[in-house]
Description:
alpha+beta, 30% strand
Amino acid sequence: MPLFAVYAPDYTDGEAIQRRLAVRESHLANAAANPAIKVGGAMLSPNEALDLPDAEKKMIGSMLVLECASYADAKKIIESDVYWSGNVWDKENTVIRPFVSPKLH
């Protein structure tokens, strides 16, 4: 079955993190229950967030790998997520692309 890589940056307004946190538990529960999501997680800022133990770790978006039959199915998964409907993910800058990986097949 085809794979799709998803880059979903968060909106950057001052309330974006509050919107993310308000629906995060629901997002995580739904993601854990969806077998199409093969890999997923939060992107962090700054780039050195994991290098420095005391660095602030700010969530700024999501990265996912989906396994589904078509681009339309991948788009439906993303657009039905609470991060999409809750205006966490930046709809203009979210990218879904076909993805090939020898490690996931």
